[in-house]
Design a protein that fits this description.
Strand order of the largest sheet: 1-2-3-4-5
Largest sheet: 5 strands, antiparallel
Structural class: mainly beta
Radius of gyration: 13 Å
Oligomer: single chain
Distance between the termini: 37 Å
Number of domains: 1
Shape: globular
Order of helices and strands: HEEEEE
Length: 69
């Protein structure tokens, strides 16, 4: 590849993300940032589907949606 292997390793379904989190997120350089108490934290998506999001930050596991697994 021409990017030295730095391409995104995961595709983020923005439609699903917007349904679950609404406007409480931002994506910067392929990294999902969740807003909590006016602080944006980079997170790793553990699970994302049409009904729920589970994401891990540095010290917090975030759970959004109907099926909070």
């Amino acid at each position: 590849t021409t990017d030295n292997g730095t391409a995104l390793a995961i595709a983020i379904n923005l439609t699903q993300l917007k349904q679950v989190v609404r406007n409480g997120f931002k994506i910067v350089n392929g990294q999902l940032l969740l807003r909590s108490s006016n602080v944006e934290e980079p997170v790793e998506i553990l699970k994302l589907d049409a009904d729920s999001l589970v994401a891990k930050g540095q010290t917090t596991v975030y759970r959004f949606g109907k099926n909070k697994h």
